[in-house]
Amino acid sequence: MLELSLATLIWGFSFGLIKSSLAGVDPHFVSWVRIFLGFIAFIPFLKWKGMDFKVGLKIAGIGLIQLGWMYYTYHQAFAYLKGYEVALFTVTTPVYVAVIEQVLRKNIKPMSWVFVFLALLGAAWIQYKGIQSEAYWKGFLLIQSSNLCFSLGQCLYRSLRIQNPELKDHECFALLYGGALLFLTGVVLAHSVSSDVTQLSTGQVGALIYLGLIPSGLGYFLWNKGALSVNGATLAIFNNMKIPVAILISVFVFRESADWLQIGIGSCLIFFALLFSEKTTQGPSPVK
User: Which of 86, 107, 181, 267 is deepest in the core (most CB within 10 A)?
Assistant: First the structure.
């Protein structure tokens, strides 16, 4: 679970950073830059030799879903929601992961659903504030689209890697970014990117470079690699761990206010679900 824990910590900084540093910057451009930098980071490790062409296409297709469409909707949501609200509305991700895992593998034990919904309850407890405007609904729907794509992508990648254990993550990960980059390049070309991207401040450029290389590059690599070593229920629950982490970082780093009682109760529920899911619903870990 080390990889998943590190990815969660890395992503915890992203929500507040995007809202505080990149507010007003074209979301399509932000998405494209992040994926482009991630692609550049992994292209030196790409190894075509010995890889089945169809498998390569599947990886690129997964990247289009997990990274391409996910970022397309994710960054648009910041126009309607605060940074911590974007994190909070990812509360439904574990349910999507659990359902998709059950469809793909058909081996999730009934008890795993108890822990998944316990984690869901914990995150929901933290985030419940009530819908205040139509912007919430727009942001919520955008994040649900993003959640679904992220869930489907990580489950499909996990399944593909299990079926192809000879693959090495660092040697094929550039293909994920390649599929996403093709899609987002089309999006950027189809939309008129606002001229403010030529007037970015040094801080905004630095934020883009950090987001592209660390959360988008290292973070997703650690996440997809870590997803291979845990059972489906634990993977679903880890998708909600970033919520309390993001809130804590927002409070202490980005100076946002939060209800500590809600955070404490919700976080305890999530940690309890994670602990007992790993102990009682252990599944096979066929890829190391």
Answer: 86
Question: Which is nearest to 221 in space by CA: 28, 16, 37, 19?
Answer: 37
Q: In this structure, how many other beta carbons lie within 10 angstroms of the beta carbon of residue 278? A: 17
Nearest to 71 by CA among 171, 184, 156, 176: 184
Among candidates 271, 151, 169, which has minimal Cα distance to 222?
169
Question: How sure is the predictor about 129, in pLDDT bands with cuts at 50, 70 and 90?
Answer: low
pLDDT value at 284 more than 50? no
How many whole angstroms separate alpha carbon 244 and alpha carbon 15?
A: 12
H runs (alpha helix) in the chain: 2-12, 14-21, 27-42, 53-63, 70-77, 83-88, 93-105, 110-127, 134-163, 169-190, 202-213, 220-226, 232-252, 260-280
Q: How far apart are CA 193 and CA 55, in angstroms?
A: 34
Distances (CA, A) of 147 to 20, 69, 230: 22, 10, 20
Spatial contact of 237 and 92, defined as CB atoms under 8 Å apart: no
From 285, 1, 231, select the one nearest 111 (Cα to Cα).
231
Residue entry with tokens 């599947």: 58
Q: What are the pLDDT digits (tens) for 88-114?
A: 777 777 777 777 877 777 766 676 667
Those residues whose C-beta lies under 8 Å from the C-beta of residue 138, and which sit 6 or more positions away, are 80
Closest by CA position to 17, among listed 256, 254, 258: 254
Looking at residue 215, the DSSP 8-state letter turns out to be I
For residues 146, 150, 156, 161, the Cα torsion angle rounded to the nearest 10 degrees is: 160
Q: How far apart are CA 158 and CA 170, in angstroms?
A: 14
Distance CA 211, CA 203 (A): 12
